[in-house]
Amino acid sequence: MYPHERSLVKRLENEPFALIGVNSDANLDEKRDRFEEEKITWRSFWNGPKGPPGPIAKKWNVTGWPTTYLIDAEGRIRYKNPHRMGADYAELDKAIDELVREAKEIQSGS
């Protein structure tokens, strides 16, 4: 998903949007090198040395990777794994654009 995530960060750079990742690799040093290679510029948290069964995955009930949550401007989970609805990410983009539109309405007081 890295190429698509990079495109989202670029496309929505001036919008009320944030991409946050959780890394499940056991070796953080190796992942840091991969982040540099893949040009990962957004915040990413480490799930710990146990990898997938780490504390973040446990708290968020993540059982498979990747898992995607879209959280609205009020902090509610609105979608889980919308990227799995369509192989070309069209459903994911549609859901993100809807939430960005809603966030802009909240910001403007509409």
What does this 3D model show about the protein?
With 110 residues, the protein is α+β, with helices and mostly antiparallel strands. The protein has a single domain (2-108), classed as Glutaredoxin (3-Layer(aba) Sandwich). It contains 4 helices and 4 strands. The protein has helices spanning 2-11, 28-38, 55-60, 90-108, and strands spanning 21-23, 44-46, 69-71, 77-80. Strands 1-2 form a two-stranded parallel sheet. A two-stranded antiparallel sheet has the order 3-4. A hairpin with a 5-residue loop joins strand 3 and strand 4 (77-80). The longest helix has 19 residues, at 90-108. It is globular and about 45 Å long. The model has no long low-confidence stretch (mean pLDDT 91).
List the helices and strands and how they pair.
Blueprint: H1 2-11, E1 21-23, H2 28-38, E2 44-46, H3 55-60, E3 69-71, E4 77-80, H4 90-108
Essential attributes:
110 residues; alpha+beta; Glutaredoxin; two-stranded parallel sheet; two-stranded antiparallel ribbon; 4 strands; 42% helix; 12% strand
Summarize the structure.
By secondary structure, this protein is of the alpha+beta class. The protein contains four helices and four strands. The chain is globular, with a radius of gyration of 15 Å.
> Can you give the mean pLDDT?
91
Would you give the CATH topology? Glutaredoxin
| SS summary, helix count | 4
| Beta-strand segment tally | 4
Question: What spatial order of strands do you see in the largest sheet?
Answer: 1-2
**Number of spatially distinct domains:** 1
